[in-house]
Amino acid sequence: MQKVFLGSEAVAAKTATPGELRYRYLRLFPNVYIAGGDPPTLADRTVGAWLWSGRRGVIAGRAAAALHGARWVDDNAAVELNHNCRRPPPGIICRDERITSGEVVRFGSMAVTSVARAAFDLGRFLPAGKAVAHLDALANATRVTADEVLSLTETYRGARGVKKCRAAVALMDGGAQSPKESWLRLALIQRGFPRPTTQIPVLNSRGRPFAYLDMGWEDVKIAVEYDGDQHRKDRSQYVWDEQRLRLVRAREWLHVKVISEDTLDDITERVAAAWRFRERATAVVGGAW
């Protein structure tokens, strides 16, 4: 028996009785069960949703992005299907939309939207900030490009959410290494700063990169980085982070470190202060930085 299975098929095959389905297995969706005692993952629920659809649904949205390798997809996210059903059970979202064979790939027996189509759907159906974060993660995992997604916005000009998708894709950046980095980049843009570049290489004396900065503006040597909690759990990581920061600053970078406790106003002021410092320095020397 598979880990995720249809109860009716298990009963017909005599691998489980109706009583065993009720007491020994966890019901994911109508007629869909899972074996084992661990909490079901998004991958488990994705298989379950596909089975529930009679093996006819096409996995889409966040579940498709996760299958393509995107990180940071919530295990509790609803499984989105391109499937004709007006009243799906809780945990499944169905949309019956036009889709071509070129926008569908196979993961084993399951039909899954292609990377570009998954991105197209993410951009249309998620709130703006979440859409960009998920697009960043998908681009980071697959290197899907804005042009690939935008071509679908032309193919489906009249589809729901196309305008939203174009706006989200315009902000997509595969250099983001976490949802917090995506949030920080968007916050800086919304506060009026020029769009920062991501994963900026910093070179050592031999011209080789020893660090990649989360984001910043290379022309004025201002970097902004989100500091996670890795150093709290890993002493060697903490030591390297401090040494790396000293080396970056030694190469005349102004470095703004952001932590989870910082407010957006505080972040904005610190970044603005770095820009003011650069502007004063430029005015003194009478030229570009």
Q: Care to give the gist of this entry?
A:
The chain has helices spanning 7-12, 18-24, 42-52, 61-67, 115-125, 128-142, 146-155, 162-170, 179-190, 230-233, 235-250, 264-285, and strands spanning 4-6, 26-29, 32-34, 58-60, 79-82, 92-95, 104-107, 110-113, 197-203, 209-217, 222-226, 254-258. It is of the alpha/beta class. It is elongated, with a radius of gyration of 24 Å.
Number of domains: 2
Using the alpha-carbon principal axes, give the shape: elongated
How would you state the average pLDDT, rounded?
94
Beta-strand percent range: 15-25%
Q: Span from first to last CA?
A: 66 Å
Number of strands: 12
Q: Tally the helices: what do you get?
A: 12
Strand-pairing-aware structural class: alpha/beta
